[in-house]
Design brief:
With 308 residues, the chain is an alpha+beta fold. The chain has two domains: 160 residues, Ribosomal Protein S5, domain 2 (2-Layer Sandwich), CATH 3.30.230; 129 residues, Alpha-Beta Plaits. It is built from ten helices and nine strands. The strands form two sheets. Strands 1, 2, 3, 4 and 5 form a five-stranded antiparallel β-sheet that branches. The longest helix is centred in the C-terminal third of the chain and has 24 residues.
Amino acid sequence: MNRSNPLFYGKILLFGEYGIIKDSMGLSIPHAYYKGAFQFEETFNKEQASSNQHLFTYLEYLRREDAPCRFNLNQFETDLNKGLYFDSSIPQGFGVGSSGALVAAIYDRYCENKIGKNPKKSADIKVLKSIFSWMENYFHGKSSGIDPTICYMGLPLLIKSKNELGSVDLPAQESGAGAVFLLNSGVPGETQPMVEIFMDKLKEEGFRNMLKNQFVKYNDACIKAFVDGDTTPLFANLKKLSRLVLENFEPMIPQGFHDLWKQGLDSEDYYLKLCGSGGGGFVMGFTRDYEKTRKLLNNFDPEVVYRF
């Protein structure tokens, strides 16, 4: 990957999946293991050709009259004709920001009145989120704009509500026994169908009450404990959150993970939660003893994203 072009990293939404739709808190961090950057190539391989063609299609979306920022679309088209494509190691449909990184890269390269990557004002971050929401709607039907904002800024982001968000300092990673990790389901997930299932569930009074009175409560408590570096309330609330997801978000849990999910709850060795919208992609886990958990889940090739 040519380092002369800016790199945009993937992201991990540690907490807030689905809850942020109903105004719960969210906490997202960059994930530098996965990244993407624009490149030029005179002769495409199949993957590069596909990326270039998809970018041509996306160019037409950016030509819409309701575009929220001024794009240099003539330059974008010229670059595409010269062999521009997005070289990315971020897997699509795995909840780690593949479309978010692409949107951030397009904004950075072609928006003529862009906001810088390190905005100091929360109002500027809010504007970025709004722009990125419109840009990413193309991929998901309805996007919060949070993923591209994370990928663009490259900083942990605390979402306090739909209209209040900003960067946050997290405890320094340590070489301790605990870890946040990912498990690969082996199949990509599709955001839009999962969100549609969620919106249908919101029509049920019992589900709405659970979300408001339990899910949001445990989710927000997890975020506070994680930011404070306090593992005792973190794991107490993680257990409650993990059980709620198992009982109420069954369609979103990737096939073959339900027993593994329950095993973690029963043993208390680890707790699983959704990574993104679910249905496939990655599943996220938290454990106090990663070495023990790694051996238990060795067949799923766990990937560490944060140590504590």
